[in-house]
Amino acid sequence: MPVVQVEAVRKSFGAVEVLKGIDLTVERGEVIAIIGRSGSGKSTLLRCINGLEVIQAGRIEVSGHRLDASGKGLRELRKDVGIVFQSYNLFPHLRVGENIMLAPRVVLRVGRAEARQRAEEALAEVGLGERFEAWPDNLSGGQQQRVAIARSLAMKPKVMLFDEVTSALDPELTGEVLATMERLAGHGMTMLLVTHEMAFARRVATQTVFMHQGKVWELGPSEQLFGAPQTPELRQFLGSGLK
Amino acid sequence: MIRTFSESEFLFIVASARWTLLLTVLALLLGGALGFVVALVRTSRLAPLRMLAAGWIGMIQGIPVLMLLFLSYYGLSLAGVDMPPIVAASVSMALYASAYLGEIWRGSIQSVAWQQWEASAALAMSRAQQYRYVILPQAVRIAVAPTVGFVVQLVKNTSIVSIIGVVELARAGNLVNNATFAPFKVFGTVAATYFVICWPISLLARRLEGRLHARRPG
Ligand SMILES: Nc1ncnc2c1ncn2[C@@H]1O[C@H](COP(=O)(O)OP(=O)(O)OP(=O)(O)O)[C@@H](O)[C@H]1O
Ligand SMILES: [Mg+2]
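^ thats the input. predicted complex w/ magnesium ion below
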């Protein structure tokens, strides 16, 4: 059974239809990159998948949790979906370790010892094992973003969504976050990531989706999609994006 | 007969500060509790609730405290509820505080970055958990300074209840002055007593703010 199933999803903001019937399936362990122009609906699609936006039509199913226009079962679904944004959004009043332990403790109701163990494991996974006691403000942007990833990982999600997580970072900090994501992919995490890092998408993603005007315009194994784009829109996008 | 301003007059004035303090504390406890509810309702997801709280704030802020006082004192006694002036005074000061504190705290809650709501929602937290663990702890820091500023105002504004016969600090000063005609000594004492109450509050606020920020270096 696929981890994420998106069927004929439509989403409008007011009169503007941003997603015009999206179909997408993410199998377990798959890493899918989403590329496309600004405004093509990439972020909106990710936000719909964990219910931050309510869809108007279609169906979204994540590891057995159904999400429809009614918005029921939202919290159950979110326990299985991690999302990391461009801005890290750490909780500034909590230390790094507390940031990560909070949701497992209060949402999943795991004990203190287990929450701590989850946090330590997640921090180690993102290469920040020694920063448990640090304050978010004292970390670099790249480190904060890795803590944000760890905070999601500690919920043991079935799928992780990443929305341009390196876009706010200086180039020299981008690498460490991409390396963290690549390591996650290597450990079998199911991932759906919006990115402008084409080389990264081509190398790490098993499949790549090209979104254009609110539709899945082209979809295929990354090597094929980048190597032999089928549509003029994708050829143009890659041409302008890579030069 | 003119009395001299002696130790007993001085002590009478200083001792009357207990009513000022009692009023302030009651207004803060009752008004704070109500104001907290007002702030939560004001930031609710349901528009009718938000409007209700906004209406409350607007109404109380639009009425002079003096009218609140008259309404609670004369209004309720006309309605057959017989209550001592200090109760009416506490009720009206609490209503007054609820609107101002509610508004201050609404502002504090809303000045927490909206991404904090989104990040905590994405971690599957309920609305109550978001408030409890993410939003309110940050809002408290923002709220300290304006809240204390309001408390200092509140201490001074309690003087208004002298009108319905509560002998608090300002009223005590008036009484003593009428008997001694020593306004400089009398009101000097009154002013000094207000200062002795308000100054530590401001100091405490500075300490508190310092500590809240120390917990988050950066
Ligand atoms: N909350 C909103 N209200 C109204 N319009 C919105 C909202 N969020 C997004 N939109 C609009 O929806 C369209 C798609 O936005 P979206 O953020 O999904 O694009 P994107 O592909 O992620 O672009 P980018 O690469 O710039 O991040 C845009 O035209 C945007 O202006
Ligand atoms: Mg986007």
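Helices of chain B lie at 7-42, 47-62, 65-78, 85-110, 114-122, 127-157, 169-180, 183-214.
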